[in-house]
Amino acid sequence: IKAVVFDKTGTLTKGEFKVQTVVGGMPVMQICASCEQQSSHPIAASIVSAAKEKGLELLTPEKLLELPGKGIHATLQGNDVLCGSARLLQERGIVFVDPRESGTKVHVAVNGMYQGYLVIGDTVKPGAEPAVRQLREKGIETIMLTGDGEDAAKAVAETVGVDGYYAKLLPHEKLEHLQKIRSQKGAVMFV
Fold this sequence. Notes:
The protein is of the alpha/beta class. It is 37% helix and 29% strand.
């Protein structure tokens, strides 16, 4: 094996997400939680849990389309709602400044107007850094792939000490990167 490629969430990190910051107030959290309540994704579950802890009423979207790796497009109380990655909002022409802040950001737009964002954090698994260090000591290259944004990816990559990382990847892009690494390095293990 010439390289080990790690997925981030649930592999190098615990996959136990918590809402750390809300920018735009409780309406942003309520909108986001209302749209995410049908999703089984761990980030969605953390948003719904935080909203319930705050006693926020969750509304039922009239329409809901889950966009894998990007977020959700919904109709909520007659309003067109986007909840998800910066990429999703940019693709839909929403104008906003993506803040430089570590953690995974879930942005919210209503009727084409940016409303704010949530920052969701994950914690590194205790054994991740020693495992990566031992692989590197054996001359095996370590690479992390993640759908998270650049800031969150960089923070985890620096903490665990991987040789490189690729961020903002959709599921099919992770596979493409794995295949490219395999063609460049030879035998690759995926964790």
